[in-house]
Design goal:
Rossmann fold; two-stranded antiparallel ribbon; six-stranded parallel beta sheet; 13 helices
């Protein structure tokens, strides 16, 4: 089984979609709230400013290469694996697996409208999928009592997998806080809810594979897309420095 590799101080698993599935499903019977994160350039660069986020990622059960930039960087560092582990695609694959193995799923985060659309979309795709609950928490810091009530609701549902959509870095920190308190495996899939419901249109596969996904998303989310593209030059500079340092060590 492949070990995590260091990318700019973050431990990331250089694995394919199938290998990622094996990692996640192996932790379901443990009922310990193990959490998995999906990394892109934005998340990596935020870690350089937010040391709490960096520590949170490095305490996770596994970090997958969600973005094409991260997957390419891992390959440039000498790791061999197929494609990337995109959050929205992984969520569909996980729900299909849940159907075949009678597993229960729960959704946490985003808006009530999105959660309703998501539940309908997934039930249309997988009629036998057991969706045992969904929570849209208020956009504020929860009181201890409110948080405890949500934890009890999730655990009482018997959920095996909890999909979390709070956006980075909030969702990663939330999952760490709830590891050991929530029984279900936690998956921080971020914008996957919005992609799967069609609220944010997904780029054609060809554009994704040719690193042009940002161009497709630019008209939909101009501020977010421009901000993230401005992070790329520094990411590449840091990658080059790491490659040189590793070459010297070797």
């Amino acid at each position: 089984m492949k070990q995590s590799v260091n990318l700019q101080g973050i431990n990331i698993l250089p694995v394919s979609m199938d290998e990622a599935m094996k990692r996640v499903t192996a932790h379901i019977p443990k009922r310990q709230g193990d959490y998995f994160c999906f990394t892109n350039i934005h998340v990596i660069m935020e870690c350089h400013k937010d040391h709490e986020l960096k520590a949170t990622l490095n305490k996770s059960t596994g970090n997958f290469p969600d973005g094409m930039g991260v997957a390419k960087a891992l390959k440039m560092l000498g790791n061999r694996f197929q494609d990337r582990v995109r959050g929205a695609d992984f969520m569909l694959k996980t729900c299909e697996f849940a159907c075949r193995h009678n597993l229960k799923v729960f959704f946490y985060g985003n808006t009530e409208e999105t959660l309703a659309l998501l539940s309908k979309k997934l039930r249309d795709l997988y009629p036998d999928l057991m969706i045992v609950g969904a929570i849209s928490p208020p956009f504020k810091d929860l009181t201890e009592d409110e948080d405890d009530a949500y934890v009890r609701q999730i655990n009482a549902s018997g959920a095996d997998m909890l999909f979390v959509s709070l956006g980075a870095p909030k969702q990663e920190k939330w999952m760490l806080k709830h590891k050991g308190r929530i029984a279900a495996v936690q998956l921080g899939v971020g914008a996957a809810f919005n992609f799967l419901t069609g609220q944010v249109k997904q780029a054609p596969v060809r554009m994704q594979k040719t690193y042009l996904e940002w161009l497709y998303r630019l008209p939909q989310e101009p501020k977010k897309t421009i901000y993230r593209m401005l992070l790329v030059p520094e990411f590449l500079c840091r990658l080059c420095i790491q490659m040189v340092q590793e070459r010297i060590r070797q």
